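Exercise 7.
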Amino acid sequence: MQTRRSSLTLFLCLVFGSGAARATDSSPAEAARAMVESERKFYQTGQDKGTRAAFLAFLADDAIVFRPGPVNGQEAWGKRPETGLDLIWEPMFAAISRSGNFGYTTGPAKWKANKKDEKFLGYGQFVSIWKKQKDGSWKVALDLGIENPDPAGKPEALRIAIPEKEIADKSSPAARRPTLQDAQTAFVALAKLDFTKAFREAASDGVRLYRDGSFPAIGRDAGMHLLEPEQAGVTMQIMKGDISSSADLAYHYGTYSDTQTQAAKTGHFFQIWQTDAAGAWKLVLDWQQALPPAKP
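Solution. The predicted structure, written as tokens, is:
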């Protein structure tokens, strides 16, 4: 057990320690507005120049997209021809780290084969991790999503979550990194026995739960309701992650297997964690997507 924990400690130190960007001079509020503006420019570039061109322009060189597993986004989109796909999306929620160089956006999306078509082919939700680059620009570090039914009514107005100026937690970023590891290790261990319980104990009040075929469940109670049909016992293997330089916002992704069901399901998971005012790490976003059935 000690050997496994030491290995996990080394892994997380390498993953979370090497990728953190330096703090910026802009306030979190200013940084959040710049990040959202970059999201909107990303969308407008797609309308003006095409979806492929937009992704190649706004994905970081090492960005990850899921097809269905994690692959380099620049390589994946570079291989795709420009088909005229009309992809429409807008941010509905955004959050930023205290360092002002690391955040995420999420919101509704819809698409059709081309702009001339009247009927949309599908609807869904996107989640994008954004990181401020050395030149001051914002780039997408990770992008994924789900599909959901045709939504009724208009989407909600954009809400931006800005960290509070005064918090009880006065610990240093270096001190918060090990506590993130502890929170994630505890979640993975409990999820292997009962994923729903792990979610309930780790989730923030405003947690967002994403599953294909359903609208996002926002809030712990809504998330618990969406998880009701799921079987307990999910084995999770962390692949990679990143953390803000202020060590208050982080994500990781990996593979999962649900062997409790009659027909075992496997797929990928993605989680975003954020510290609360007391410094405790809370799960603020959870995404899972099962792999398609193997062809006979």
